[in-house]
Amino acid sequence: MALIVGLTGGIASGKTTVANIFRDQFSIDIVDADVVAREVVEPGSDGLKAIVARYGQEVLHSDGTLNRPALRTIIFAHPSEKQWIDALLHPMIRRNMQQQLQHVTSEYALLVIPLMVENDLQQLADLVLVVDVEEEIQIQRTMNRDGVSRQQAESILQSQASREQRLAIANDVIKNHSQNQQLLPQITELHKKYLEMCRANL
C-alpha cells in the first residue's frame, strides 16, 4: 500500500492548484473526495436511487442527473435532512476513496479532502498536508472566483474549520499567501521528503 498524504485546506486556499502540481510535475496519483462525492450520485448509482426514493423525481434534472439546487432547498427547509444525506453518502464516499487508493501506482498518493477536519477524516491518511492561507485572501479569492458577496464568502468561511483547527492536524504546511507564491519549490521539497519516507518504509 502506497503512503497516503491527506491534502486539505479551506475554501479558495489553492488545494486544487497544489494537487495538480503534484500530479503534473511528479506523476503522483490523486484521489479527490469532491470527485468521488459526484461519482456516488451519478445516474444509476445506489446513492442517487436512494435520494430519489426519499424525495421523488423533483430532485432530478430532465437528463436524470441530481438537481443539487433542488436538494439544497429541501435541506435548507428541513436541516435534519442533511443528517440523512450525510449518513447515506459519507460511507459510500469513504468506501470509494479507499477502493481507489488500493489501485494507486505512484510511490505515494494524495488524498484530497476539503472537509477533512470537519468530518474527522484525517485517519484515512498516513500524514496530513495543509494548504494554508490568510482568511482575508480566502475571502477575496472566493468573491472573485464564485462571484459572491463578501457576506456570503465570510459565511462559507465561518461554516468551515478554522485555520488553527486545520494547522493542529498538519504534518506539513504549504503557504499559499501571495498571488504568485512560489508553490513549486515548496512542493518539490515535500515530494523529495515523501519519496524518502516511502523508501525508508521499504
Automatic annotation (TrEMBL):
Gene3D superfamilies assigned: P-loop containing nucleotide triphosphate hydrolases
Record-listed ATP binding positions: 12-17
Enzyme class: transferase
Lineage, highest ranks first: Bacteria, Pseudomonadati, Pseudomonadota, Gammaproteobacteria, Vibrionales
Similarity comment: Belongs to the CoaE family.
Gene Ontology MF annotations: ATP binding; dephospho-CoA kinase activity
PROSITE patterns noted in UniProt: DPCK
GO cellular-component term (any): cytoplasm
One biological process term in Gene Ontology: coenzyme A biosynthetic process
EC number in record: 2.7.1.24
Pathway: Cofactor biosynthesis; coenzyme A biosynthesis; CoA from (R)-pantothenate: step 5/5
Reaction it catalyzes: 3'-dephospho-CoA + ATP = ADP + CoA + H(+)
UniProt subcellular location: Cytoplasm
Protein name listed in UniProt: Dephospho-CoA kinase
SUPFAM superfamilies: P-loop containing nucleoside triphosphate hydrolases (SSF52540)
Keyword hit for Transferase: yes
Domain of life, source organism: Bacteria
UniProt cross-references to InterPro entries, sorted A to Z: Depp_CoAkinase, P-loop_NTPase
Classification via Pfam families: CoaE
Keyword annotations from UniProtKB, A to Z: ATP-binding, Coenzyme A biosynthesis, Cytoplasm, Kinase, Nucleotide-binding, Transferase
Organism of provenance: Vibrio panuliri
Function: Catalyzes the phosphorylation of the 3'-hydroxyl group of dephosphocoenzyme A to form coenzyme A.
